[in-house]
Amino acid sequence: MNLKAVIFDMDGVILDSEPIYYQIEKNFFKDLGIYISDEEYHSFVGLSMNEMWRRIKNSYNLKEEIEALVKSNNKVVFQHFANSENLQPTPFLEQFIQNLCKKNIRLAVASSSSKKLIEVILKKLILKKYFKICVSGNEVKNGKPAPDVFLHTANLMKVNPEECLVIEDSTNGVKAAKSAGMRCVGFQNLNSGNQDLSAADMIISSFSGLYEKIIKFL
Asked: What pTM did the predictor assign?
């Protein structure tokens, strides 16, 4: 494989954010008068906000429109992270990124989160300087597990899908990467729930030593 680009998912990969989201969403669900089990919530990991709320609205017969639910939810999430202090990136991530930069490998973030949220989190983590390209699932027609977000990101980076490696922590994300014709590293984050990463080309639980592993593997 001629590796030219690495595309990172954000939530659960760059930042161990799923426990934070879960607390925010639990309060949001409570305000709507619905209860979502841990198992059901973990099935939403990697989905766009639109798709998550489409499923919830259908399952719980909510009267609110999907657009209004998404807008309210995004506002609450953004305010939380905008006011957060001392956010830390996933251990060993920055060292891995720096090794990729030394090899002139292009980097991008492709997340189901909103562009505004991606930008604020990367800024809080002091990682924005590494990522010239950040793509939100809102920018494409179909969210993960469809391949749209990754194909769009590759197009912006001017690289072919087969020249890209994706790092994902969710079943939906891995499916999207493989559907896009890209290699995929499944990042096993226990806080992301019981995600099936078996379709990934490699599964890891730490960024420590990953650079050496992918150079050898790919």
From this structure: 0.89
